[in-house]
Amino acid sequence: MTREQLQELMHSVLFFDLLASIMALLDVKHRQARRVCSTWHAEWWATDTVRRGLRRQVSPPVLMPHDTHVNDIIALDDERLCLASTRGMGAGAGADGMRVIVNMHAILDPSSDCQPLTLHCSHQPSWRLAAGNGRIFSCGGDIRSYRVTDYSMVAARAPSAPFSFFGLALAPVGPLFAVERMEEREWIVALDPGTLETRLTFGDFQSGALHGMAVVGKELYVGHEPDCSIRVFSFTGEPLRQITGAFRVPHVLRYFMRRLYLLEYNDELPHLDENGEVDESEEVTAERYLAGTRVFVLTPEGDQLQVYDLRPQLQRPGEFVFAMNVFGGQLLIATSSRSLDNVNSTVDSMFALSGV
């Protein structure tokens, strides 16, 4: 078998990193078998960037109900997608809450003519979501947990006045992380996912400095606006390292199978320094205006693997990406654009990218 045939076989037959996991555990004593397995292992890693790279899907965008602004999305299983949404955007936005699209997989099938079947689970404000261990967690100033079976509420946690909760990240075995914010400062809290009681508080940042969060193994990755970096913490709150790159403010972070997907904040305004003042030293470049129209693919160590330009798929004036998550082996992208008729009204849609 030629090298090209081997690469094509691996690309079409093998899925995700199954072979790599098997090879890591396999102990072959026979020399010839060892050489064969080593070759397969080497070819698997050599073709990794070929097999895994974001690519455009042929399916058209899925339009959301009129004036529904999608704040966050998360998969509950292979069919159900949970949305955190508001009615409109900006000063005129109204509460919409958490809803579930129960046939999202069929909707993304280009041969399907299914329409979104949605269920409203809560009319409480919802900005960020997390899910796992049979629960859905919704953050909209306070934090609430719901059962994934019947969407009934299990627990609620209101912040101490005048604080608010922003952002969520759930460890598969461990705490639920959130950002607690007051007028001038904010910090990270680790909550018990069952009771939503505080286990730990750490960090001290200016209000609005922290953005997207993701759990990677036994570490917490947090987007940090003042220096456009990713801060990495242990579960006990110890600062471990800082990741920087060509990206601007890390607004959304998603981790899936050794890949960290980063969506930048759509920041048309200059950054603020640590004192909350306009950073006059920052050079105004075209990179600022690309934020919200591209996805960075990184390794957990911060090495850049790909920058996917979404602009060819953004059709409406002023359209940018506001949320993303992995769903059914694809990266689902939620976009938003302001209505031409009402500045506080939006037109939102979703489309999928393959190659995760």
Describe the structure.
Helices cover 14% and strands 44% of the residues. The protein has 356 residues and is mostly beta strands. It has 2 domains: 3-48; 52-354, 7 Propeller (Methylamine Dehydrogenase, Chain H), CATH 2.130.10. Strands 1, 2, 23, 24 and 25 form a 5-stranded antiparallel sheet that branches. β7 and β8 (135-139) form a beta hairpin. The radius of gyration is 21 Å and the shape is globular. The model is unreliable at 11-18 and 24-29 (pLDDT under 50).
* Domain tally: 2
Helical residue percent band: 10-25%
| Contiguous helical run count | 6
Instruction: Identify the CATH architecture of the largest domain.
Output: 7 Propeller
Give the beta-strand count. 25
Summed up:
The chain is mainly beta and 356 residues long. 14% of the residues lie in helices and 44% in strands. It has helices at 3-13, 18-25, 31-46, 48-51, 104-108, 286-290; strands at residues 55-56, 62-63, 68-75, 81-87, 94-101, 118-122, 128-132, 135-139, 143-147, 153-157, 164-170, 176-181, 185-191, 198-206, 210-216, 219-224, 229-234, 239-243, 250-256, 259-264, 294-298, 304-309, 320-327, 330-338, 346-354.
